[in-house]
Amino acid sequence: MYLPKWDAPLPPGSGSGIKMLLDGQISFVQSSRPLKDKEYEMAFQRGILLQQIPVAIDGIAIAVNPSLNLTGLTIKQLKDIYRGKITNWSQLGGAELEITPYARSIQSGTTDFFQYNVLGTEKFSDRVIFVNDNQQAFTKISDKNNPGGIYITSATEVIQHCEVKALSLSRYSSNKLVSLYKNQGKPSDTCSPSQNQINFDAFFNGDYPLSRRLFIVINQNRKEDEQVGETYTKFLLTDEGQKLIKKAGFIPLRLSYGAFLGSNGRLGGGTLALSCRQA
Fold first, then answer.
1. CA end-to-end span of the chain, whole Å?
2. pTM for the complete prediction?
């Protein structure tokens, strides 16, 4: 029998939460990425049956200093920045300004998603500075003495922080940039609900290039924990729960559009799918 244990605190992120779930420290976990094969294998070795249930859709935002005179990036340009191939904003038509790329630790679901979907088999450049949390990154890139910073994060985080701005993105052409914001939101002294709203249509029609599912992961072998996780998940999938998800800046799954993320993490037609396996 596998006995739960308590280890030293882990850096915040989906990977840390899943590890804590496998270690019996928590009842369920909210994850911004799907379970990995190695996590399923670890669960199987411990006699644990995991279930992951998608509850919302989130976008990946590219946050920069508001003073940066650049509208957006293509996915290739973004990849080249985090690979260290592009090191100055002047290489992209911006000012003569050194680029300082930031990211959360690899335990973060956002960083893990970026590695898999943008970098692929390539690694982060040694130029990338890894930070502990979003606030640390926002403080750095909003600093007037550090106007060249760039940071990958959740769309919901950016719309709550008006001291930074999100760049528009395009899969291929810089002439077809898609804004994260509904009304091309701009930073200001105070955030307001009418400003910096998520561009829901761009997610539904698949125009915004970086989107992902958000999951609740449940341990089905511990009855009380399973009941707690299922109750929480069922609430999130109710009309009230989905309204709260939308209010928080995420994309609800249960909308009349019927659009869901496919297995590759991108939007597409389909049905809500659960993932439950033992090995």
1. 17
2. 0.72
Give the H/E segment covering residue 53.
Answer: strand 50-64
Q: Please state the domain extents for the chain.
A: 59-204
CB 249 within 8 A of CB 195: no
Give me the percent of the chain exceeding a pLDDT of 70. 82
CATH class of 59-204: alpha beta
Is 210 buried (19+), middle (13-18) or exposed (0-12) by CB count in 10 A?
A: buried
Query: How far is the C-alpha of 197 from the C-alpha of 269, rounded, in Å?
Result: 24
Helix and strand totals (H; E) in the chain:
9, 13
Tokens of 85: 């191939």
pLDDT in tens, 133-144: 999 999 999 999
The two three-digit tokens of residue 35, written as one number: 């379970």
| Contacts for 181 with CB less than 8 Å, ≥ 6 apart | 159, 166, 196, 197, 198, 199
How many Å separate Cα 243 from the centre of its chain? 20
41/31 Cα distance (integer angstroms): 18
Taking the CB of residue 123, how many other CB atoms lie within 10 A of it?
12
Closest by alpha carbon to 264, among 59, 34, 45, 99?
34
| Residue closest to 59 by CA, chosen among 200, 164, 258, 240 | 200
